[in-house]
Structure formats: structure tokens, C-alpha cells
Amino acid sequence: MQTPLAVRARGIAKTFGDVVALDAVDLDVTEGEVHGLVGPNGAGKTTLLGLLLGLAGADSGTLQILGAPVGRALAVPDGVAGFVDGPGLYPTLTARQNLAALTRLRGRGVAAREVEEALEQVGLDAVADDALRGFSLGMRQRLGLAAALLTRPRLLVLDEPANGLDPAGKNHVHGVITGLAATGTAVVMSSHRMDDLAALCAEVTVLATGRVVFSGTLGKLALESGEVDYRVATTDRAGAARVANGIRGLRVLDQDEAARRRGECELLVRGGVAAMDELVIQLVGAGLSVRELAPVVSPLESAFLTLTGTSAGSSAPDIEESR
Ligand SMILES: Nc1ncnc2c1ncn2[C@@H]1O[C@H](COP(=O)(O)OP(=O)(O)OP(=O)(O)O)[C@@H](O)[C@H]1O
Prior knowledge:
Layout: E1 5-16, E2 19-30, E3 34-38, H1 45-52, E4 60-65, E5 68-69, E6 80-83, H2 95-105, H3 112-121, H4 137-149, E7 155-159, H5 167-182, E8 186-190, H6 194-200, E9 203-208, E10 211-217, H7 218-223, E11 228-233, H8 237-245, E12 250-253, H9 257-262, E13 266-271, H10 273-285, E14 292-295, H11 299-308
Parallel strand pairs: 3-8, 3-9, 6-7, 7-8
Antiparallel strand pairs: 1-2, 1-4, 4-5, 9-10, 11-13, 11-14, 12-13
Helix pairs in contact: 2-3, 3-4
């Protein structure tokens, strides 16, 4: 039997004046799945999350949330919780008072014990009686998540939940998200961090200027990376470069200036996974050491840059001449 869909979006379009924020967007999220939304700034992630939260309506297309069609009225659909552009909280109230006020606003009585548990889950129990105005961005994000937890959502929608989080805060947030998914809650979250998505998401949707350019598992996304730059640490750079230059599908790139100054025995090569495998086999066969082989940019990030037509910032290193 197929797992029921928590979100089913088809052909969603949304414009703001001349700006096309979403164009023919499809999205499927199953119950119990953590689904990542990625894309460069302005790709349409927040707009799409806003539609899921009932903050705006689509211009066209169909949207079903938790099995019910979303109409034109703007309201948070039943069973949905979350926030975009940071949670709406009261700066003068304490963390605990904020949670109590928010649950009262939603007309749902919540036992004091539930509030304590939610604060504990996001790691804010020690600062429960501190006023929100002294909270950092990461602490506010965690309190927003605690408020969402209290509604016992079946679909949780989060806009860059890892924003501003220190490692301990990140652990709490990751723990909450995976815990909710394990009990059947669907989570849709945007993030600019591929490592967070890799840690949490089964599937991702990549948006670029309002269009879906990829949807599927992270394994499938990594395959879109094509050629990736790797650093090879070896004891004999010149010898390793000779071997690498003889391998089909592999290019030796100029060592960056900083590494050259440090006198590092590092080789920078560009190629696909098969060419990289061949390099290791041939280096070892030639009696040359491979102390380390690591991608300069992770295959996931590389796939993202390729699919969205963005660059890694610095221009691609020049190709080194064969010796
Ligand atoms: N209320 C609005 N009025 C006018 N334009 C808007 C509005 N909301 C979004 N846009 C535009 O729609 C496009 C998509 O914006 P959106 O905020 O959804 O992107 P995003 O992927 O969330 O970006 P970021 O990563 O920077 O948060 C952008 O060009 C943005 O300027």
C-alpha cells in the first residue's frame, strides 16, 4: 500500500507583479517524510512554504494538504504548523509565557507539562523564564519550533530552521525533526546547508527562479554532480600529476596559490567518480602514496551548483599543463 501524501501540489504558480516566484511547481511529500527545499536566494522556497502554511494562495494549480484541497481562504490548514521568515513571538514575554500565550491564541488548552516537555525538547528549559528580547536568532528559532510542537502537527513547515543555531541547538532541532518524522509527521524544510539536508532529508526538491529543476533522493541528486574537484594528498606531487594526466576523463588543475606557498604535496584534479577510482588504482600501482582524497566541494553541493546555474564563488581553477 502506498504511503499517504501529506502534500500534493500540481502546477503551482505564484507571481508578485512582474516577478514569477513559482512556475508550474509540483511537490509530493509523504507522511513521515522529511523533505528538503533548496535553491539560490529568490528561488521561491519561502513563497512555496507560505502556500503550505496558508499565508497566501496560489494563482493557479492545485494544492492538497493532509488529503484536503486547499481553497482560496487564507488560514493555516488543520494539522499544519510552522513558520516562515522567523517565528512570530512576543519580545516582552518569557519563553514559557510565549508558549502559553500562543497556545491560548490557538484556542487549544495545553497542560503545563506539555509546555515543559516542548521547552526541553528544543533545549530551552534552562532559559524558560528569560524574556525573549534577550534571545539570539537561534534561540528564537528553537522557541518557534517548540510552539509548533505544541499543536501536534501532522505537517510541519520550517523555513531554514538551522539558521543561527550553534552545534547543541542544531542537535536539538535535528532530534525534534527526526523524532516527529518517526511518528508519521511530514516535515517540509528549506535550507541553504547541504549537510543539514543530507542529515535529515530523504528527498529534496531543488528550485531555481521558481521552477523545479530536480526532485528526488539525495543519492540521485549526487549523481547530477557530473565532474567534481578533488584534492589528492600524496608524497610525490609531480609523480602523481604524471599518472593523473594519463587518465581519461581526468584533468589536473592548478594548485591554489595558498597551498603552493605552504609547499603542500597536494594535487587538484577534476573528473567523474570512475576517473577518480582509476586514479587511486594507478597511483597505488605506481607505488605512490594516497594520504587523502577528498572532494573540494561535496558532490551534493556540486550538483546544486550545476542544476541551479550558480557558481561556487571563485572561478574554476585553470587546467595545469601536462608535464
Ligand atoms: N510579497 C512579495 N512581494 C513581491 N515580491 C516577492 C514577495 N515575496 C517574494 N517575492 C519575490 O519572489 C521571488 C521568490 O522569493 P522567495 O522569498 O520565495 O525566495 P527564497 O527562495 O525563499 O529566497 P531566500 O533564499 O533568499 O529566502 C523573489 O524574486 C522575491 O523577490
